[in-house]
Amino acid sequence: MPSWKHRRRLIYMSFALSALMIIFGAITYASDSSVSRELIIGGVALISIILTAYTAFATYEDVKTRKANHEDI
Fold first, then answer.
1. How many structural domains is the chain composed of?
2. Whole-model pTM above 0.85?
3. Is residue 69 part of a domain?
4. What are the tens digits of pLDDT across the range 39-49?
C-alpha cells in the first residue's frame, strides 16, 4: 500500500475521533459542562491540527515531487 493511502486513512480516523468528541461533548453538555467543554475544545483543536498538518505536508510533498521531476529533464 502506498504511504499516502496509509496517511489518508490515519487522517480520516483522527477526524472521525475528533467529530465524535465534539458530538459527545455537545450531547452531555447539560449534565457535566466542564468535561463536555474540554471535549469540544479538544475536538476542535484536533481538527485544526489535522487540517494544518495535512495541507502543510501535502504542499511539501508537491514541492519535493516537482523538484524531482524537473531535475530529470
1. 1
2. no
3. no
4. 999 999 999 99
